[in-house]
Amino acid sequence: MEADDLYRTVAREAEAACRERSSKFLSWIFPVRSEEEIRHHLDALRKRFFDATHHCYAWRLGPRGEAFRANDDGEPSGTAGKPILGQLLSNDLTDCLIVVVRYFGGTKLGVPGLIAAYRESAAAAIEAARIVERTVDRTVTVDFPYVAMNDIMRVVKELQPRIEAQEFDNLCTMRLMIRETLADRLEERLRKAGGSLRDRA
After folding, report:
1. Residue ending a domain, choose from 134, 159, 174
2. Is residue 77 in a domain?
3. Residue 1 falls within a domain, yes or no?
4. In the sheet that 196-197 helps form, which strands lie side by side, from edge to edge?
5. 58-88 pLDDT, tens per residue?
6. Using CA atoms, how far apart are residues 38 and 116, in angstroms rounded to an integer?
7. The total number of structural domains that make up the chain
8. pLDDT recorded at residue 201
């Protein structure tokens, strides 16, 4: 049974290494949440392996992998980034970056050889990683008068959203996080309990 608000990613960074003829391929997979994080990892690897021939990569972001990119970094078009991205797609992974660093060993691999080498390197990094399921969450911000506190807290206790922030005064505010499939129900219950919901940004 597949829930609409679940997606697969990796728990933490993992790495692997492959050899193809005389070329060496080092691969990493990182959990990422933004393009800024992606740039940080790429810059760090480029500095660390400054003498490598190529730093090819692919990434997917968003619960449905709606944002993605593949980069061949000077390899023939479609021979590196695309097969790396293909591994993210076939393993149904998102919020991930895979980087494959190649040290050219002097023997050309040809287009089919390159595609296979980058695909296998990406697959090896995925195999080394621990895959986890995460929920797609929604932030719900509710304002309510102090007199409605007990009713609001009863809803929070029953539906158990994560409390991100709270402020209690004459007018109280709570910022809650809950998985997408329960969010409409939470919002409806909070309204009935006397809460006023802020528009989602």
Report:
1. 134
2. yes
3. no
4. 162-167, 171-179, 137-145, 196-197
5. 999 998 889 999 999 999 999 999 999 999 9
6. 24
7. 2
8. 53
Domain that holds residue 172: 136-197
Q: Are residues 130 and 113 in the same domain?
A: yes
What is the chain's Cα-based Rg?
23
Query: How many other C-beta atoms are found inside a 10 Å radius of the C-beta of residue 200?
Result: 10
* Helices assigned H by DSSP within 91-171: 110-128, 149-159
3-state secondary structure (DSSP) of residue 141:
strand
| Residue 85 forms part of a structural domain | yes
Mean pLDDT score of the chain: 93
pLDDT at 159 exceeding the cut of 70: yes
H or E segment to which residue 15 belongs = strand 14-20
pTM over 0.85: no
Residue 22: give its domain's CATH number. 3.30.230.30
Q: How many helices (H) and strands (E) does the chain have?
A: 5, 11
Handedness of CA 177, 136, 29, 45 (dihedral sign): negative
- The CATH number for 158's domain is 3.30.70.240
Residues 126-154: b if buried by 16+ CB within 10 A, e if exposed: bebbeeeebbbbbbbbbebeeebeeebee
What's CA 39's distance to the chain center, in Å? 14
Which residue reads 């991205």 in tokens? 85
Based on the fold, state whether residues 80 and 126 are members of the same structural domain: yes
